[in-house]
Write a structure and sequence with these properties.
This protein is an all-alpha fold and about 500 residues long. It has one domain. It contains 20 helices and two strands. The chain has a two-stranded antiparallel sheet with strand order 1-2. Strand 1 and strand 2 form a beta hairpin. Helix 12 runs antiparallel to helix 13. The longest helix is centred in the middle third of the chain and has 32 residues. It starts with a helix and ends with a helix.
Length: about 500
Amino acid sequence: MSALAQPLAASAVQSVDWLAIAPPTLTAVIALVALVADLFLPQARKPLLGWVSVAGLAAAGLLLLPLLHGDRAAFCLTGQPAVCSYRADHFTLVIQFLVLGGALLAALLSVTALKDARGGLPEGEYWFLLLSSAAGAALLPAARDLATLVVALEVASLPAFALVGIRHGDRRSSDAALKFFLSSVTATAVSLLGVSFVYATTGSLYLTRIAERVQHVDGQLHTLAQTGVVLTLVGFAFKLAAVPFHFWVPDTYVGAPLPIAAYLSVVGKAVGFTGLILVTVVAFPSYGDVWGPALAVLAALTMTVGNVGALRQRATRAHSAVRLLAWSSVGQAGYLLVPIAAAGSTKDPQKAIGSTVAYALMYAAVNLGAFTVAALVGRTRRHNRVADYRGLYAANAPAALLLAFFLLCLAGLPPGVIGLFAKVTVFSAAVDAGLGWLAVVMAVNVVIALFYYLQWTALLFRAPEGEAAGHRVPAPLTAALTLTGVLGVALSGAPQLVLRFAAQNLF
């Protein structure tokens, strides 16, 4: 090798911190283990794959603990430790905790769903796809360049398409997967066009370098840079199910296996708002006057369309419980967008982003809890209508009380104190940023949401029509209900824990 080639080769070698990248790496390794082991295990022992996957997700979550003491980075440019493709800072760890925790609870629901399917779902492929998607979702918050960000987005998304349509021969499942796939691919293509515009104007894909260079873009390229900012946001707005990219949500949630609907409602949201935060606050802080108003309008439209859609659901319609939760998740996405929009015009964007993270943690716990009860009822009520929950208290008092608590948390009413605190935090972020009109829209939507949340809650305690059927709770569902219930009650008793945790310096 020539003397000139040696320093060039050395400069191409990037640092690797194996501990920093351990959580998503271990998740990906367990996914491969599940796929390979499925080839050798007899049918009777394939349920072991589920427990191996649950254990792997738990282990990946535990690997976050050694990372709590200081920021770590990997794949940095030689001699430039501040320019990295992967960074495990406080923001990364909080989102990875949310993603891996959400995937763990979805895995617990899946253990029971696969057992009830009686061979109707391919177990090896199911666990491989779920863990692969979780690995991509865990990688995304650590991404600090646009290439890694897009790759992580696709790794989280592509397995999700297959999971939605994994029920072979089910037309509703196939239609949902096709709609999800086509709309997602379109959104990703638009985002890639935006990334190309950003690269053309700044000459870099690293978020920190983009933030520096975009402020000095030549006047003739200023419009191209602005267009690139807006187009880049489209793919992440789709994952968050923001209007007008929300139309896939109800059919996808109904067509997918219920654990996958629960997974998409939480981890899919985490992927969406995390990407939006990284692109806006880290890469384009100087363009807050462009993306701030755009996201504020998106937030107002999303929460309104979501809550009106949930309000229109008929209790006797097939799968109306899942559809109501789907439309509710669209409305909740609007609330998540409010602080991100506020970050574009506030003097303290870190505080605004902390509000989104705090709200996301609350939403993840209680929404997964609501889906767990829906999975329990769905075992005996195939159509899973809201009307099927009438008299649930007489059939299974603990499940009814937990569902009532989760719904009150989503509504922001006592005893769901954590839901109330989270909504107040989001409301304050809008007011502090001078977005009074958005705060008013949010207040109106909270009132609209009260109607369908309280209507469902009241139904749980009415006298059942006919004899109340008991619900036997399998061990995995019991574990999921216990985890979400304990977390929700603990946070309602001490909401300052999650608010303080999210208020720390994120970046």
